[in-house]
Amino acid sequence: MSKNVIIKGTLILTIAGILTKLLGFYNRIFLTRIIGVKELGIYQLIFPIFILSISFCCQGISTAITKHVSYHLGKGNKGNSLYIFKYGLCISLSLSIIAMLLIYSLSTPISIHILKNSDCGRLLRIICVALPFVAIKSCINSYFIGSDRPDILGISHFMEQLIRIVTAYILAYAVSNPTFDSRLATLSVVSGEIFSGILAVILIWKSGKGIQSSSKLNKVNIISFIQDVIPITTNNLIFTLFASFEAIILPAMLYKFYADSNTSMELYGMVTGIVIPFLLFPATITTSLSTMLLPAISNAKAHNNKKKIKKAIISCCSFSIFLGLIAFAGYSILGEWACEFAFKSKNAGVLLNRMSFLCPFIYVNGILSTILNGLDKAFNNLFINILGLIIRILFTYILVPVYGINAYVLGMFLSYLLMICLMLIGIRSTVSKDSLQAS
User: Fold this and answer.
1) Which of 92, 155, 226, 372 has the highest CB neighbour count under 10 A?
2) Dist CA 36 CA 435 (whole Å)
3) Residues 6+ apart with CB under 8 A from 328
4) What is the pLDDT at residue 251?
5) Gap between the Cα atoms of 191 and 271, Å rounded
6) pTM (global) more than 0.85
7) pLDDT value of residue 117
8) How does pLDDT run across 335-358, given as a tens digit for each residue?
9) What is the structure's pLDDT at 127?
10) What 3 state SS string does the chain have?
11) What's the pLDDT tens digit per position in 384-412?
12) pLDDT (mean) for 176-181
């Protein structure tokens, strides 16, 4: 994958991502004003389970599809790339159906014993329906990314967010139910995922890709694909499992500090529903860059081009730091005004101002994680992410009940700092070792 392709793909994904994020912010503002910050917190509480399910059935497979499709196309073997896509799609779709049935049948015990909120049961029964469509969408979009077609991913995300907004409006104004609460947001998510899944199928059918192929995967190709899927999926699962545990215990630990369920749930809603989305908004650019960087690193590795890998690492990390510093400065100055203007919440603005220094660390961490995956170091990535999340969980469980939200922020900072240092050490040793072997 050439430098121009990476830049073009990043620009396409960034433009689409910014438009999607803007729509997402508008939707979040609308939902917050309709259902309130507390209901927003309840809505956010089901996402650890939803994202954990996606990690199990989609993320590792879709990442491996992108990597192997790009690799085989770099070798000039289109047939293998098509079979990789079909093989991954069948596995992902099957796992998503299993996950959907499990969540639907176990929604009540999950909500009571794990999420500690009985209102989450009905939301889980709604959102699990989206899982098969998420699997289809993820695999198809990953195939297009590996085939140098990032525009498909941009279109899919934009349309998905647009459908969410339309659904939320229709349900809010057409259904005369004052207790509709967080179900409004959940149904809008499901409708968006269903639409984007159907759209992905239409796009790949019209493009003529993925329908026919001229060769079959041999045993070595399949084993290689599975060898990537297992560690990446394990990494995502463990990372999401720890992150889910962190997200689930945070409201409980905040309750111990504030001794008020409404205050703790509102603060949880501010952190997860307002502040973190603000922090991640500029990351649209680095996320787009990461999406294009994975096949580029994989392709360069296929051609044993160590110079290209080193150049990509340096330029991408430098850009991420620069973008993070700009975001830090912007939120430090305008954070309070932005939250008060958009969400009518001065407290969220104060919290955004306090957490804005995390931006450079968050953006660089995402880039380095992608690079490690591209260098076939998914197990290293897994180990580093586990250590980082353990730090955050310890801070949440031990210090948040004593010092409140400030302890959570400090835990995030130390975890990102540790992960970045370890990732840089791992990448440097890997590239240097490969260079010595190549010479």
Assistant:
1) 92
2) 55
3) 356, 357, 359, 360
4) 86
5) 25
6) no
7) 82
8) 888 888 877 778 888 999 999 999
9) 93
10) CCHHHHHHHHHHHHHHHHHHHHHHHHHHHHHHHHHHHHHHHHHHHCHHHHHHHHHHHHHHHHHHHHHHHHHHHHCCCHHHHHHHHHHHHHHHHHHHHHHHHHHHHCHHHHHHHHCCCCCHHHHHHHHHHHHHHHHHHHHHHHHHHHCCCHHHHHHHHHHHHHHHHHHHHHHHHHCCCCCCCCHHHHHHHHHHHHHHHHHHHHHHHHHCCCCCCCCCCCHHHHHHHHHHHHHHHHHHHHHHHHHHHHHHHHHHHHHHHHCCHHHHHHHHHHHHHHHHHHHHCCHHHHHHHHHHHHHHHHHHHHCCCHHHHHHHHHHHHHHHHHHHHHHHHHHHHHHHHHHHHHHCCHHHHHHHHHHHHHHHHHHHHHHHHHHHHHCCCHHHHHHHHHHHHHHHHHHHHHHHHHHCHHHHHHHHHHHHHHHHHHHHHHHHHHHHHHHHHHC
11) 988 998 999 999 999 999 999 999 999 99
12) 58
User: Distance (Å, rounded) from C-alpha 286 to C-alpha 320?
Assistant: 7
The tally of CA atoms less than 13 A away on the side-chain side of residue 193 is 20
What integer pLDDT is reported at residue 413 of this predicted model? 95
The whole-number average pLDDT for the span 284-296 is 65
Token pair 């998510």 in the structure block, residue: 189
Query: Token digits for 419?
Result: 């992960």
- What's the alpha-carbon Rg for the chain, to the nearest Å? 21
Mean pLDDT for the chain overall: 81
* CA–CA gap between residue 16 and residue 6 (Å, rounded): 15
Q: Which two tokens stand for residue 252?
A: 């409980």
* Dihedral sign (CA 3, 301, 68, 227): negative
